[in-house]
Amino acid sequence: MVIIGRTTTLALIIPRLPLLCTISCSPRLSVSSKLRMSTSASTNTGGSGKSALVIREFVSVEGGGGNARDEADAIRFRLVSYNILAQVYVKSSLFPHSPSPCLRWKARSQVILTLLKDLGADFYSLQEVDEFDSFYKTSMEDLGYSSIYVQRSGQKRDGCGIFYKKNCAELLLEETVEYNDLVPSLHDEAYLSSDKQNAPLTNRNNGDSSKQDLSEKFSILSVKSSPENRGDPNDPRVRLKRDCVGIMAAFKLKHPFHHVVILANTHLYWDPEWADVKLVQAKYLLARLAQFKTLVTDRFECTPSLILTGDFNSTPGDKVYQYLISGNSTSSDRCLEELPLPLCSVYASTRGEPPFTNCTPDFTDTLDYIFFSPSDCLKPVSILQLPELDSPDVAGALPNYSHPSDHLPIGAEFEIAKD
């Protein structure tokens, strides 16, 4: 759930870090472009009945190679990123346009599970997961997925999860990203201006000293006053404490050969009036991800592939998006600082960003992305279709009987060539 509006900016100091990467998965046949309709039991406004859950399919992209390479020479795996809308945020007062049966947890949970099952991805990056222990963990285990999860800081009940097929990938290493680490401690000196706004092998968060060094560098902010009553917005201890998180993990793909992939999943802060905070979070995330890539490369003596997914609460024209892709941009207005990792958007680099991934009566635009670090061995070969603005299944905004969240799932199928 999100509302986007005006944006503001902020400046910060960012370190220059090295880059590296690795992962592997199972081959897959090419997919069709048909629209599938799955029925899920539900009650509509006119009484009980069946409602049509819309499940779109993956379509080949130009240059993706409709015909897979020889099975021994390439790995294909499917990835879906999806803000599933935490049930704790589902209130009829927030979604008056949605039929009330669509908002009830018992029905929603089964529709979401049906959608995930029918999409058939090897990896799922899910945001706003708030029933992890009581529902998603065990339900996805029954479908053959293992999982890792990080809950938001403070009293927030939702978080980010990565689900992966056990017969496809082996978890090597994981780290969590707590954006509250950016909050200066009470004795820290903050410099303000008035112009702007683990894995099986190690502890869950390793390299704490390096992480602390990064968070201290990113805590030197310039901020802009906000009309919201959230304490002193010029105080970084207030401005940066947004309880947002991310998670990153290294996986070894098993078939037909071994390859290491780093997959990161995050959910950045939502408020359009605090766009500077989102940009700080994005820069901190990439710096941490670059560190993690170096760690994985050195520890497992590999060259990992890297994919970043999530709800970035930023449209393609926003500074966060422009920053994330600036490492691969030749534009004259690219960020001045050196980006720790070069990234491309899967959709933008193939068929263009979709018209929207979030659809409510007050806001409809693209907020969710799959980024990847280009390499000779990794390329997207197909993407998950998304509806157009005039598609009947999104009429009247989301959630509805066709879509259980106010966001849409996005996805890509990747091919990894053998070295």
UniProtKB/TrEMBL annotation:
Q: Tell me the Gene3D superfamilies matching this sequence.
A: Endonuclease/exonuclease/phosphatase
Q: Which InterPro entries would you find in this protein's record?
A: CCR4/nocturin_mRNA_transcr (IPR050410), Endo/exonu/phosph_ase_sf (IPR036691), Endo/exonuclease/phosphatase (IPR005135)
Q: Where are the transmembrane segments?
A: none
Query: Which one of the record's GO molecular function terms can you name?
Result: 3'-5'-RNA exonuclease activity
Give the span(s) annotated as Disordered.
194-214
Q: Ranges for the Endonuclease/exonuclease/phosphatase domain?
A: 81-407
Q: Which domain of life is it from?
A: Eukaryota
Q: Where is the composition biased (Polar residues)?
A: 194-209
PANTHER family the UniProt entry points to? CARBON CATABOLITE REPRESSOR PROTEIN 4, CARBON CATABOLITE REPRESSOR PROTEIN 4 HOMOLOG 4-RELATED
Write down what this protein is called.
Answer: Carbon catabolite repressor protein 4 homolog 4 isoform X3
